[in-house]
Amino acid sequence: MSASHSSSSSTITTITTITGPRPSKRYLEQSEIAALRFENTKFPLLVVLDLNGCLVVRQGPVIELREHVKPFLEYLLEEHYVMFWSSATTASVKRMVDKLLTPEQQTRVVAIWNRSHFNLTPEQYNSKIQLYKKLSGVWESEYIQQQHPFAGLHPWAQWNHHNTILIDDSEEKARHEPYNHICIPELFRTEDPNKPHLPLNPGTTVLSQVAGYLDWLKHSCNVTNSIKKEEFVLNDQYNLNWQEFWAERGRMEFEWDEAEAMEDWPPREE
């Protein structure tokens, strides 16, 4: 626990930190159920995206984008079901989402969650404490469950540990459902002197590799077991070629902003 003192009085405000959750016994048991794969069947996936440090990096009013995040998001909106969940405030989340998506694209997003969706006390909300993204809270949302493409048609048609993926740069935040998590390297500002060297396979980016991994997961009937057996590792065999992806769907390659494309090439993460 930590305490903060008010400068105007001797009152001590106690801020209760949050104990890191552990996976439930049932969750761990479910993760052991062998995942059957159906190469000709695409199962719906709910992809929960972090924002700062994952898709963007903020410094004051400046927001930098991870390389090729625009085609990555369009791929997700085309192939899967997308929601955002950030520990930032409502206003900050809106600024980041507005930077990433057009108004039309935002209408295709399942939900946008912010700091208010962590069930915090007022003191916790206004303090920098470790937060945890419990996907069970997502699954308990009636509104989000209604966004399942087959909601109401079958009793099994619901979002759960079988078909939900959290993409976040923090393993700690995902500790409640570790086998629903794709952990990617934290994004740093271009000019950050502490930015680590991040070598990538030629012709790939972090997000194209993640997209390739998701393309593999979409054929699994139990992603927890698939991730447990073969977690996402950077520079593994997974990669999605944007040109081939759109060509297979009878569309030209996704056109993102030309200026942004020039800024992102060569990739900043190197």
TrEMBL record:
One record GO biological process: protein transport
Membrane topology of this protein: Single-pass membrane protein
Domain FCP1 homology: 40-207
Pfam families, per the entry: NIF
GO cellular component term of the entry, any: TIM23 mitochondrial import inner membrane translocase complex
Main location: mitochondrion
SUPFAM superfamilies membership: HAD-like
Entry's transmembrane regions: none
Record flagged with keyword Cytoplasm: no
Subcellular location: Mitochondrion inner membrane
Protein keywords: Mitochondrion, Protein transport, Transit peptide, Translocation, Transport
PANTHER family assigned: DULLARD PROTEIN PHOSPHATASE (PTHR12210)
Subunit comment: Component of the TIM23 complex.
Family: Belongs to the TIM50 family.
Role played: Essential component of the TIM23 complex, a complex that mediates the translocation of transit peptide-containing proteins across the mitochondrial inner membrane.
Name used for this protein in its record: Mitochondrial import inner membrane translocase subunit TIM50
